[in-house]
């Protein structure tokens, strides 16, 4: 599997570390309530299809990226800097 | 009193010569990481150019030459290798001394590319990775910075604690490449 780092270009998967579903870019407000926080901390979807996830380019430039990957085929549709995703949703 | 002796990270490990390839210590001088503050990149580029005569390298690029280089070193990070940084740079960037933190070696020889091909998950052949190109990647399992500094010369940098591992992995690859003639 290869991941197209927005900074470094196309790189082997071994340079990246998987950091879970891309929920960390949508952290609830501190007073959002127990339900929102329970969802944020504990509940994850397990789709047989497209999934937004966070990867860390730890052996490369160090960027955190949001990868849209198909969990059944490993096809990657989109890679963006987590910072850009966060700014776009702000 | 304890006497403290300055010792290079690759002291006693290099030089090595296996086949036509050589591994030597890269004596870069002071290493300084420069991380531009938000919005201060243009100012840093200008200050670096004025003070040290080098352009601020973009991602995957290095500028300068032997004795004074600026090497892209990660997201928003450049390492200045050689000159002592002028004070002006601190106005635009976080300036941090890294001199003793890195083990720096130079791999040279007509088959240096073949040696690295055994260890690095990147195409480092000259058609793709020219002089002045650099990459943050891995050498075997060690996070590293790889820079082409000549037709058959590469500058390799890893964390100081990984010096012996780096030399071990490189010497094995050099031996195998040499054995193939």
Automatic annotation (TrEMBL), chain A:
Signal peptide: none annotated. GO terms for biological process: tetrahydrofolate metabolic process. InterPro entries: SoxD, SoxD_sf. It comes from Aliishimia ponticola. This is Sarcosine oxidase subunit delta. GO terms for molecular function: sarcosine oxidase activity.
TrEMBL record, chain B:
InterPro entries: GCVT_N (IPR006222), TrmE/GcvT-like (IPR027266). Residues 93-150 form the GCVT N-terminal domain. It comes from the Bacteria. Pfam families: GCV_T (PF01571). This is Sarcosine oxidase subunit gamma. It comes from Aliishimia ponticola.
């Amino acid at each position: 599997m290869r991941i197209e780092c927005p900074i470094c270009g196309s790189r082997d998967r071994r340079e990246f570390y998987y950091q879970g579903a891309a929920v960390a870019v949508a952290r609830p407000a501190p007073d959002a309530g127990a339900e929102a926080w329970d969802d944020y901390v504990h509940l994850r979807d397990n789709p047989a299809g497209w999934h937004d996830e966070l990867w860390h380019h730890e052996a490369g430039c160090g960027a955190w990226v949001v990868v849209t990957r198909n969990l059944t085929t490993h096809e990657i549709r989109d890679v963006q800097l987590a910072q850009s995703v966060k700014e776009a949703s702000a | 009193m304890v006497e403290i002796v300055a010792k290079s990270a690759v002291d006693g490990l290099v030089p090595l010569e296996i086949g036509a390839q050589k591994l030597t210590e890269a004596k870069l001088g002071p290493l300084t990481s420069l991380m531009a503050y938000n919005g201060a990149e243009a100012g840093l580029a200008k200050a670096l150019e004025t003070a040290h005569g080098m352009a601020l390298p973009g991602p995957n690029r290095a500028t300068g030459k032997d004795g004074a280089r600026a090497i892209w070193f990660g997201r928003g990070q450049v390492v200045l290798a050689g000159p002592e940084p002028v004070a002006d740079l601190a106005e635009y960037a976080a300036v941090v001394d890294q001199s003793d933190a890195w083990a720096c070696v130079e791999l040279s020889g007509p088959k240096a590319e073949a040696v690295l091909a055994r260890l690095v998950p990147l195409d480092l052949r000259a058609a793709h990775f020219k002089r002045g190109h650099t990459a943050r990647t891995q050498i075997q399992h060690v996070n590293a910075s790889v820079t082409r500094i000549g037709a058959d010369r590469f500058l390799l940098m890893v964390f100081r604690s990984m010096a012996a591992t780096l030399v071990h992995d490189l010497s094995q690859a050099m031996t195998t490449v040499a054995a193939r003639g």
